[in-house]
Amino acid sequence: MTKGTLSLVALVGIIFVILSSVFIVDEREKALVLQFGQIKSVKEDPGLAFKVPFIQDVVKYDDRILSLDTVPTEVTPSDDRRLVVDAFARYRVSDVVQFRQAVGVGGLSAAEDRLEGILNPVIREVLGSDGVTSNTILSADRAALMQRITVQARAKARPLGLEVVDVRLKQTNLPEQNLESTFSRMRAEREREAADEIARGEEAALRVRAQADRTVVELVSEAQKSADITRGEADARRNAIFADAYGANEEFFEFRRSLDAYEKAIRGDNSTLVINPDNAFFDYLKSDQGAAAN
């Protein structure tokens, strides 16, 4: 092997060693330098860092706030109304040394399993404590409950090198076996309310209808009364006129009345009468006044 070839191999080896001893820490990460599994240094500031090549290894952990969705957990509040709670947590790796010692080579996957094992018991404990009912969980008061859950979970997750930033309840539902009975009870309640509303509506309609009928009767009675009074006054006026006319000329009155009677008796097809000539019907015609008129 020539001298130039040896120099090139040596140069490549040197470059390889230098590259193996340099690593970059991103601003979103924290890094541990390990030597035979033991922690030698912690790199939290972003930039270039160095390690002993072939002997030391670098393990990086995400320094951002992460989220964890827990499995739905069944809780029993103080009113014994079981609920299924679906929650999520936001957390971050606060102490990489403590985190590495707690979870080992399992990393975030192992940490999330252990964190979920912390969250679910805390959720059941807080939501099942005295004074906490299903209405409290479903109302705006749940914010205080979530704060209690966060505080307790944060204290229990600290030995893992984790900081629990927040715990939130996403959904709160009834267990599947209770849904149908709850829906049936809700339907029965709504049907009862509907029946009450219909009954009240019918009662109000009857009152309005009765009032309208009464008003109609009163109006008709008042109108009939006014009509009778007017008709009576008109009849009285007519009779007075007839009386005045009769008193002014009795002969003319009798003449007109007899003519009206003859007109009504002999009209249309009724032009033949079978009657005794001495009947009073013809008194006016046989009288001197009637003969003079004829």
UniProtKB/TrEMBL annotation:
UniProt keyword Methyltransferase, yes or no: no
Coiled-coil residue windows: none
Keyword Nucleus attributed: no
The organism's place on the tree of life at top rank: Bacteria
CDD domains, A to Z: SPFH_HflC (cd03405)
Recorded GO MF terms: peptidase activity
BP GO terms, sorted: proteolysis
Any single GO CC term annotated in Swiss-Prot or TrEMBL for this entry: membrane
Gene3D superfamilies xref list: Band 7 domain
Subcellular location per the Swiss-Prot or TrEMBL entry: Membrane
Membrane topology: Single-pass membrane protein
Domain Band, residue spans: 20-186
Keywords, alphabetical: Hydrolase, Membrane, Protease, Transmembrane, Transmembrane helix
Main localization category: membrane
InterPro entries: Band_7, Band_7/SPFH_dom_sf, HflC
Transmembrane segments: 6-25
Role according to the record: HflC and HflK could regulate a protease.
The family this protein is said to belong to: Belongs to the band 7/mec-2 family. HflC subfamily.
PANTHER family: MODULATOR OF FTSH PROTEASE HFLC
Protein name: Protein HflC
Natural source organism: Litoreibacter halocynthiae
